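Page 42, continued from yesterday. The earlier attempt failed because a stray header line got pasted into the input along with the sequence. Redoing it now with the clean sequence only.
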Amino acid sequence: MDKQDELRRQRQALKEEMEAADKLGFQGADSAGLKGPTPLDGVGARLRDRSTSGPDLTMVMDIPVRLTLEVGGSDMPIRDLLQLHQGAIVELDRQAGEPLDVLVNGTLIARGEVVVIEDKLGIRLTEVVSQAERLQSLR
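This time it went through. Structure tokens are written below.
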């Protein structure tokens, strides 16, 4: 709960900061002799200040996500599942040597192969799914 509370506090502080910036934008327009909001007031001012290089992702960089590597899967009836024991072998729907799927919060983002680095397992990405394909999988 601590992380969620901290994120809420940060979100509230950012909201207050943006509202204060909006008020300053409106006051600047009044002193310039302009009536009512102008396109550069409030949201317009924030849009103007954004760089064209891409969206500002600093607010989402600390949000935790779940990274999962999927080796394969298998469908089986509950009868067979209950008969599994130590040493049993379950056949998966993938061939040996096929790349693993890399999922973030359940969405496929890449494929890769298992590597060993100082007695720990890792994954070397061999293919990254394009942004268009990721968006398509969300639909």
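Notes: Confidence is low (pLDDT under 50) at residues 28-32, 34-40.
Reminder to self: strip header lines before submitting.
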